Amino acid sequence: MTVDISQTSVDDRYVIFFDIDNTLYSASSKISQAMGERIHAYFLSLGLEEERATELHHKYYTEYGLALRGLVRHHEIDPLDFDKKCDGSLPLEEMIKPDPHLRQLLQDIDRSKARVWALTNAYKTHAHRVLRILGVDDLIEGVIFCDYGNPKFSCKPEPQFYLDAMQKAAVSDPKKIFFIDDSRNNVAAAAALGWGSCVHFCEAGLETVEGGKAKQISADGKEPLPGAIVVGRLEELRSVWSEVFKTTEDGSAKK
């Protein structure tokens, strides 16, 4: 699978796509829990009963990869209103802080070999806000986000979202893409499209919220994803993706 892009925009370097939420920061921040509460409240604001709201929240997340996709399709809500009341109301400055270790990790990627992008199911305002708070916004070349301004927006794990990401990042060869995400389904979708190195970020033992339901993070106990790697710390990328990190004088990746 290749994507046609303008020949004037072709860049032969690798592209690294980092998921943002629960990947660039730890699930221990409890942001997913706070988000789950706000999304549930949004379902209730539509006049749904408690049990029905819970049922649909989980159903839409499971079917579409994002509860908002179901809300737009079946309830004709304004996604920008949803973003304002859910993502936009999160007290992120109280939940995450600048991360010097993350910043150093991103600085140690050799930019002569790889470009660094973010790939998120959030809207651009939330994405840029998180990157700014973490203190790494200047190290991200571009952000692929869900365009809530378009009622027919796509999201992970829909194939179109990944194809659009390749187009926007001007990369035609999927084998030149490195990708890391905390969602097994999102990683599986990228692997199915032939993306070169897919990593499942899995903080085993911590708790997160998916589709409004709390769950303990694990590799799911399912069959391993073909060609995918599981890591529990971002620092492990230095060895997993050693070819795109700066090296020391002896040729080993910088620590």
UniProtKB/TrEMBL annotation:
<dbReference type="InterPro" id="IPR010237">
    <property type="entry name" value="Pyr-5-nucltdase"/>
</dbReference>
<protein>
    <submittedName>
        <fullName>Pyrimidine 5-nucleotidase</fullName>
    </submittedName>
</protein>
<dbReference type="InterPro" id="IPR036412">
    <property type="entry name" value="HAD-like_sf"/>
</dbReference>
<dbReference type="GO" id="GO:0008252">
    <property type="term" value="F:nucleotidase activity"/>
</dbReference>
<dbReference type="GO" id="GO:0006206">
    <property type="term" value="P:pyrimidine nucleobase metabolic process"/>
</dbReference>
<dbReference type="Pfam" id="PF00702">
    <property type="entry name" value="Hydrolase"/>
</dbReference>
<dbReference type="InterPro" id="IPR023214">
    <property type="entry name" value="HAD_sf"/>
</dbReference>
<dbReference type="InterPro" id="IPR006439">
    <property type="entry name" value="HAD-SF_hydro_IA"/>
</dbReference>
<dbReference type="GO" id="GO:0009166">
    <property type="term" value="P:nucleotide catabolic process"/>
</dbReference>
<dbReference type="InterPro" id="IPR052791">
    <property type="entry name" value="SSM1_domain"/>
</dbReference>
